[in-house]
Design goal:
Elements lengths: L2 E5 L4 H12 L3 E6 L7 H17 L6 E5 L5 H10 L4 E4 L8 H4 L1 H22 L4 E6 L23 H20 L3 E6 L2 E2 L8 H11 L2 E5 L5 E2 L2 E2 H12 L17 E6 L5 E2 H12 L4 E5 L14 H7 L7 H15 L3
Parallel strand pairs: 1-2, 1-4, 2-3, 4-5, 5-6, 6-11, 7-10, 8-13
Antiparallel strand pairs: 9-12
Helix pairs in contact: 1-2, 1-8, 3-5, 5-6, 7-9, 9-11
The structure holds nicotinamide-adenine-dinucleotide (NAD).
Organism: Hydrogenovibrio thermophilus
Protein name: NAD-dependent epimerase
Keywords: NAD
C-alpha cells in the first residue's frame, strides 16, 4: 500500500480520487488551501464526506488533511521535508477558463508558482511518479479532430490554457533533468455529483429547477466531450500505477520519463443535447437566452483516447443522460432543491 499526496483534495476531482485511493487501502495526505473561488462550504462538505467514509471504515489514520497554499514555497517545502510520498497526484490549480480573463494573477500563483513548488518537492524526494492535471483547453481552436496528444498545442486562447501547457513543459524539463517520472492528464469537461458550481451544468440545473432563464452561449452549438467523474477517477488511478520510462520522441534527442494522455469521453455532444439531459433529469423545460460565443471559449472538444486505452486498458464510456441523472439526484439532495 502506498502513501499518496493528493493536492486539491477538497476540490471536485481530488475528492473522488482521495476516496478511491482510500477504498483501495492506500494512505492519503490531502492538500488544499480551501480558497473561495467557489463556495468553500462545498469544499468543507467534501472533506467531511471523506472523514465520514474513514470513520465508517475504521481507517481514520489513513487520511490526513493539510491546509497549505502551494504558491507558498516555504509551506510546500516544509510538507515535503516532513513526509515522504510514494506518489503525488497534483490536482490543485486555479481552474476555469473565463475567470482567467478577470483574475490572471490567480493562475500565475497557483498554476505556475505552485506547480514549480510541487516539482521541486518531487525533485528533492525523488518521487516515483508525479501525475498532474492538464486540460483539453491546451488544444485551443485546433481544427483537426479528434484531438490527439501528438497534435501541436502552441496556440492557447486563454491564460488558463497557457498555464496548463506550461505545466507540461515544466514537467518535461524536470523529467529530463532529474529523471522524475511525470504523467500529465488532459481532462475533458468533467461533470458529476459534488461537482464545480462555476461550471455550466451546475448553474443550468439550479436555474432550470428554479424556473429561471439560462444563458446559452454560441446558441448551444458548442460541442463538448463531457466526461463523467467516475471515468476520470478510473483513468487517474490506473495511470498512477503506469510509470513512464525514460524514452525520447521522434523529434528530439532529449530523454525523459514523461507522458501525456487525454482523458475524455471520446463522444462529443452539443450543448443543446446536454441541456436536454438536464431537462429530462429535472423533469422541467429550460428557458433559454441565446448568446454569442464568449472570449476564451472553444467551439469543440473531442478526445482521442487511443494512447490511454493502449497503455492502461481503459477509456471513459458513461452516457451523458446517465451521468446527468446522477448529478441532478445529488444536487436535489444536497441543496434540498
Ligand atoms: N473539472 C474539469 O472539467 C477539468 C477539466 C480540465 C482540467 N481540470 C483540472 O483538474 C484539476 C482539478 O479540477 P477540479 O475540477 O477538481 O477543480 P476544483 O477547483 O474543484 O479543485 C481544485 C482544488 O484546488 C485547490 N487549490 C487551488 N489553488 C490552490 C493553491 N494555490 N494551493 C492549494 N490548493 C489550491 C482549490 O481550493 C480546489 O479545492 C485542476 O488542475 C483543473 O485545472 C479540470
Amino acid at each position: 500500500m502506498m502513501k499518496v499526496l493528493v493536492t486539491g483534495a477538497a476540490g471536485f476531482i481530488g475528492f473522488y480520487v482521495t476516496l478511491d485511493l482510500l477504498k483501495k487501502g492506500h494512505e492519503v495526505v490531502g492538500l488544499d488551501n480551501l480558497n473561495d473561488y467557489y463556495d468553500p462550504a462545498l469544499k468543507r462538505a467534501r472533506l467531511a464526506e471523506i472523514e465520514r467514509f474513514c470513520a465508517e471504515q475504521s481507517v481514520l489514520e489513513a487520511f490526513e488533511f493539510v491546509e497549505i497554499d502551494i504558491a507558498d514555497r516555504a509551506e510546500t517545502q516544509a510538507l515535503f521535508d516532513a513526509q515522504a510520498f510514494d506518489r503525488v497526484i497534483h490536482l490543485a490549480a486555479q481552474a476555469g477558463v473565463r475567470y482567467s480573463i478577470e483574475n490572471p494573477h490567480a493562475y500565475v500563483d497557483s498554476n505556475l508558482v505552485g506547480f514549480v513548488n510541487i516539482l521541486e518537492g518531487c525533485r528533492h524526494q525523488k518521487t516515483a511518479h508525479l501525475v498532474y492535471a492538464s486540460s483539453s483547453s491546451v488544444y485551443g481552436m485546433n481544427t483537426k479532430i479528434p484531438f490527439s496528444t501528438d497534435d501541436r498545442v502552441d496556440f492557447p486562447i486563454s491564460l488558463y490554457a497557457a498555464t496548463k501547457k506550461s505545466n507540461e513543459l515544466m514537467a518535461h524539463t524536470y523529467s529530463h533533468l532529474y529523471g522524475i517520472p511525470t504523467t500529465g492528464l488532459r481532462f475533458f469537461t468533467v461533470y458529476g455529483p459534488w461537482g464545480r458550481p462555476d461550471m455550466a451544468y451546475f448553474s443550468f440545473t439550479r436555474k432550470i429547477l428554479a424556473g429561471e432563464t439560462i444563458d446559452v452561449f454560441n446558441h448551444g452549438q458548442m460541442e463538448r466531450d463531457f466526461t463523467y467523474i467516475d471515468d476520470i477517477v478510473e483513468g487517474v488511478v490506473r495511470v498512477m500505477d503506469h510509470i513512464p520510462v525514460m524514452h525520447q520522441s521522434d523529434i528530439t534527442t532529449a530523454q525523459a520519463p514523461y507522458k501525456i494522455y487525454n482523458i475524455g469521453n471520446n463522444q462529443p455532444i452539443t450543448l443543446q443535447r446536454f441541456i436536454q439531459a438536464i431537462e429530462a433529469a429535472t423533469g422541467k423545460k429550460s428557458i433559454q437566452n441565446q448568446l454569442p460565443m464568449q472570449a476564451g471559449d472553444v467551439p469543440r472538444t473531442y478526445a482521442d483516447v487511443s494512447d490511454l486505452m493502449a497503455d492502461v486498458g481503459f477509456k471513459p464510456a458513461t452516457e451523458i443522460e446517465a451521468g446527468i441523472e446522477h448529478f441532478v439526484r445529488w444536487y436535489r439532495d444536497f441543496y434540498q432543491a
